[in-house]
Amino acid sequence: MLEASGPASWRVALPHSAAAVPIARALVRTALADIEVSADRDTAELLTAELVANAVEHTRGGGPIQLVVELLPTGCQVEVHDDDPAPPGHLSRHAPEPDPLQEHGRGLLLIRALSSACGHRATDSGKAVWFTLPSRS
Predict the structure, then answer these.
(1) Strand (E) or helix (H) holding 35
(2) Tens of pLDDT along 60-105?
(3) DSSP-based three-state secondary structure for 64
(4) Residue 125 and residue 36: Cα distance in Å, rounded?
(5) Nearest to 7, CA basis, from 29, 25, 34
(6) Phi, psi angle pair for 63, to nearest 5°
(7) Spatial separation of the C-alpha atoms in residues 49 and 29, rounded to whole Å
(8) What are the start-end ranges of the E strands in 2-61?
(9) CA-to-CA dists, residue 119 to 4, 89, 115, 129, angstroms
(10) CB neighbour burial string for 98-127, b if at least 16 within 10 angstroms, e if fewer
(11) ∠ CA 15-16-21 to the nearest 5 degrees?
């Protein structure tokens, strides 16, 4: 259930399964379309899908994943909360390039390359991993 937590912010609980990815994409697309924020919707969907897929694949918790979408005067910020306190691997701008022969390992590279900022922070119940996108000119 989508819950408005302010005039331009939403928080929704997603299942800890692969089904969360298309749901999260649709929620971000809808949030950005309804408010007509001029951030790049396609990029927001792609990066949200990467964060949610990482949370599903790399965390052990069976609890829900929280998706938070905040519309800002300067663009948007998306956060994905999970119950694993371990930081995501290689989210810093100075992370090593992924091995080109490996099938996985490019999601965080996409987030670093396409967002205006990204990072993670500890929460009371685990961590939040986030990115921001600027408004389009």
Answers:
(1) helix 20-35
(2) 767 899 999 998 888 899 999 999 988 887 665 555 565 555 555 5
(3) coil
(4) 32
(5) 34
(6) -70, 165
(7) 11
(8) 3-6, 9-14
(9) 24, 11, 10, 6
(10) eeeeeeeeebbbebbebbeebbbeeeeebb
(11) 75
The amino acid occupying position 118 is C
Half-sphere exposure of residue 122: CA atoms within 13 angstroms, side-chain side:
3
The candidate with the shortest Cα–Cα distance to 5, out of 68, 75, 73, 77, is 68
Q: Which residue has the higher pLDDT, 109 or 77?
A: 77
d(CA 74, CA 50): 22
Q: Which of 89, 80, 73 has the alpha carbon at shortest distance from 56? A: 80
CB 4 within 8 A of CB 59: no
Cα 32 to Cα 16: distance, rounded to the nearest angstrom? 24
Q: How confident is the model at residue 4 (pLDDT cuts 50, 70, 90)?
A: very low
